[in-house]
Design a protein that fits this description.
Elements (H helix, E strand, L loop, with lengths): L3 E6 L3 H12 L1 H8 L3 E7 L15 E3 L2 H6 L5 E4 L7 H10 L3 E4 L2 H18 L3 E2 L10 H8 L5 E7 L2 H13 L3 H10 L8 H4 L2 H15 L9 E2 L7 H9 L2 E11 L4 E11 L11 E8 L3 E8 L3 H18 L30 E11 L4 H11 L4 E7 L7 E8 L2 E2 H12 L4 E10 L6
Parallel strand pairs: 1-2, 1-4, 2-3, 4-5, 5-6, 8-10, 10-17
Antiparallel strand pairs: 7-9, 7-11, 9-10, 11-12, 13-15, 13-16, 13-17, 14-15
Helix pairs in contact: 1-12, 4-5, 5-10, 7-8, 13-14
Length: 438
C-alpha cells in the first residue's frame, strides 16, 4: 500500500516534535496504520532555521501555501496557530481534497462550523484531538468511547497556566502577580497572558468539548468567560478552611432549559479527584448516564504530549483514508444533519452555589441585615466563617457559602448587600461546584 504523504505547516516546538515522533517511531506507526507515513514537505517562517536533527530529508519552504498546493501531499498538518492564515490554509487544503490535522483550538472554536461543512462537502477529514487538553485523548473518548452514552455534564481544568498559578497561590501563599511573572519566566505563560488568565483559551476548548458532548454547533461567543486575576490569597486560604480548593474550571451542562457553557474560578470540594490536579496538568471530568463519572488526566500542553495527539490523529486519518466519507466518525461526534441548535443559557439563568467574601463593620446587627437580604432572595446559607478583626481594627471579614440558587437572584442580593452602609468594598463572589453527579 502506498505511503501517506504529509505536509507540515509550522515547525515550532510542537511541529518539530511531531516530525521527530513520525521519524523515530516510523516502524511502529506503520504497524498501527497499515502503511508508511512520511512528511515530505514543511513550511516555517524562517526556513534557514532548518528541520530538527534527523529530519533533514524533508523539503523546507517559507511559503505554507506551497505545501498546501503540493499535489503529492495527502494530509496537511496545521500547527501554525491563530485565526489567519490558518483558516485560509485549512480551507484551501479542503478545497484541494486533502485531509487536515490541526492542534488549533482557536481556529476550530471560531471557524469550525465553516471548516467542517466544507470538509463534509469534499469528503475529507478534519481532526483536532490536540486542540483540547494536549495529549489527553478527551475528544476521542467523548466522540467514540462514550458514543453509547447521554452526556449530562463535563467539567475541566483545561488551561495549565491558570492551574499552575492557583496551585502556587495555595501551596506557597504567593500572590497572583508574583506567580504570573514566574509562569512567564518558565514559559508557561506568554508575554501577554490574557488568553490564559482571562479564560479565553479555556473557553475555546470548552466550546469544542460542548459541541462534541451535546451535538450542538460550535458557539464560542456564547461561552461565559471569567478570569482568575481577581482571586486573592485570602480567598485561597478561606476556601481551604472550608474544605474547598479554587480551580479555573470550564463547565458544560445539559439542562431542561438549555446548555450551560461557562469558564470561571470555582470552589471544588478538596476530596474530589479533580480538585487535586495541580501545576500545569489538565483534567476533564465527564458525567455520562450509563458510565457515570470518568476522569481524564494528563499533560495539557508541551511539545511531546501535543505531538502525541497530533500523530494519533495522523494515524486515524491514514487508517480511514480509503474509507467512504459517510462511514467515518463525524467531526463533531453526531451526524451533520443531527446537530441541534439547543439554546445556550445566559449566565444569569445558571443555577449554582456561591462563596461570598465581604468586609463589614464589626458591630451587632450586621449579620442580621445581610441574612435578611439573602432571605428576601430565597437564598439558603450553607456555612458562615467570620474572621474576627485584630485589636484596634473596626472591620471584620465574613465568608459565606450558599446553597444552589439562580445567578440572577445572587446578583440582586450582592447588589443590595453592597449598598449597605456597614459593608465596605466589593462583595467578592466565586461560584461553587460539588461535581458529585447532580
Amino acid at each position: 500500500m502506498k505511503p501517506v504523504k504529509l505536509g507540515l505547516l509550522g515547525v515550532g516546538t510542537v511541529g518539530a516534535s511531531t516530525a521527530l515522533v513520525l521519524k523515530n517511531n516510523a516502524a511502529e506507526i506503520a504497524r498501527r496504520a497499515g502503511r508508511q507515513i512520511q512528511i515530505i514537505q514543511a513550511a516555517r517562517r524562517s526556513p534557514a532555521s532548518g528541520m530538527p536533527d534527523g529530519c533533514g530529508d524533508i523539503s523546507l519552504t517559507g511559503d505554507p501555501f506551497e505545501v498546501v498546493d503540493n499535489p503529492e501531499i495527502d494530509v496537511v498538518i496545521e500547527l501554525i496557530g491563530g485565526y489567519q492564515p490558518a483558516r485560509e490554509l485549512v480551507l484551501r487544503a479542503i478545497e484541494l481534497g486533502k485531509h487536515v490535522v490541526t492542534a488549533n483550538k482557536a481556529l476550530i472554536a471560531l471557524h469550525g462550523n465553516e471548516i467542517f461543512a466544507a470538509a463534509q462537502e469534499k469528503g475529507v477529514n478534519v481532526v483536532f484531538e490536540a486542540a483540547v487538553a494536549g495529549g489527553i485523548p478527551i475528544i476521542k473518548s467523548i466522540r467514540e468511547g462514550l458514543a453509547g452514552n447521554h452526556i449530562e455534564w463535563l467539567a475541566g481544568i483545561i488551561n495549565g497556566t491558570g492551574n499552575f498559578i492557583l496551585t502556587e497561590m495555595r501551596d506557597k501563599g504567593r500572590d497572583f502577580d508574583d506567580v504570573l511573572r514566574e509562569a512567564q519566566a518558565l514559559g508557561y505563560a506568554e508575554a501577554d497572558p490574557t488568553f490564559d488568565v482571562e479564560g479565553i483559551d479555556a473557553a475555546h476548548k470548552l466550546c469544542i468539548l460542548s459541541s462534541i458532548a451535546f451535538g450542538i454547533p460550535l458557539q464560542f461567543d456564547a461561552v461565559y468567560t471569567e478570569g482568575i486575576a481577581g482571586i486573592s490569597t485570602e480567598d485561597v486560604v478561606y476556601a481551604g478552611e472550608l474544605g474547598y480548593r479554587i480551580k479555573h474550571l470550564g463547565v458544560a451542562r445539559r439542562t431542561g432549559q438549555g446548555i450551560e457553557m461557562r469558564v470561571h474560578p470555582t470552589l471544588i470540594p478538596e476530596k474530589r479527584l479533580i480538585a487535586n490536579v495541580d501545576g500545569v496538568m489538565n483534567a476533564v471530568l465527564v458525567q455520562a448516564d450509563k458510565l457515570g463519572p470518568s476522569l481524564y488526566y494528563g499533560a495539557g500542553a508541551g511539545a511531546d504530549p501535543t505531538a502525541s495527539a497530533v500523530v494519533a490523529d495522523i494515524i486515524d486519518v491514514a487508517r480511514t483514508i480509503t474509507t467512504d466519507a459517510q462511514n467515518r466518525v463525524p467531526h463533531l461526534a453526531f451526524q451533520p444533519d443531527q446537530i441541534v441548535d439547543i439554546p445556550i443559557l445566559p449566565i444569569t439563568e445558571v443555577h449554582t452555589a456561591y462563596y461570598l467574601r465581604m468586609r463589614v463593620d464589626d458591630r451587632p446587627g450586621v449579620m442580621a441585615e445581610i441574612t435578611r437580604i439573602m432571605g428576601d432572595q430565597h437564598i439558603s446559607i450553607e456555612a458562615i466563617l467570620q474572621k474576627e478583626p485584630e485589636t484596634g481594627v473596626t472591620r471584620a471579614t465574613i465568608i459565606m457559602l450558599t446553597q444552589k440558587i439562580r445567578e440572577q437572584q445572587m446578583v440582586e442580593a450582592i447588589d443590595a448587600i453592597a449598598r449597605l452602609d456597614v459593608v465596605h468594598g466589593d462583595v467578592h463572589r466565586i461560584r461553587v461546584e460539588t461535581l458529585d453527579g447532580d
